[in-house]
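S1.2 Input.
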Amino acid sequence: MLRITVLVSGGGTNLQAIIDAIAAGDIHNASIVRVISNNPNAYALTRAQNAGIEAVCISPKSFPDREQFHKALLQAIDEADTDLVVLAGCMVVLPAELISSYRGRIINIHPALIPSFCGKGFYGLHVHEAVLERGVRVTGATVHFVDEGTDTGPIILQKAVDVHDDDTPETLQRRVMEEAEWKIMPQAIDLIAQGRVRIEDGRTRIDQ
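S1.3 Output.
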């Protein structure tokens, strides 16, 4: 059984998609054992509690410095006996110690087709604003492993989403979530839980 810890900062819509996929049997041999948020007001914590999942808030404001916060975060993940760390709208920069300890076992969802519209400053609505400003016709979402860079880890899955002429950043964000993010994140977790995903020469390979 793959033990998943989910890190979130906000509403937790991707968390809900994972919870629903596990309940529906679309994700096999996996369970969420802990949800951690840096934001005490994150609705994601309520979603976790409603699903009977342990919900923990670890806020940097509760610690004298960033180092102590990072230590507490890593300890909370370790204590849950975590196999896979899932970033589902997590706005915290992960400490190097965490990335090192869980190398190849941390995944993230990004609301664009990497390598487009990614990297420093590209998060939340900023991504969709940039997409519309550039005038591209197709955007989407990407699930990737996390490394020391920003959105630079090996790509696992991607899904394209059409951009409409009358889109606003908000309508595009919603469509990307509904048509891509909520689909490929559960798919990626299921592939990992089945042992079908491996990293080879810096690229992800999916075994049939």
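S1.4 Remarks. Helices lie at 13-24, 43-50, 66-79, 96-101, 125-134, 169-193.
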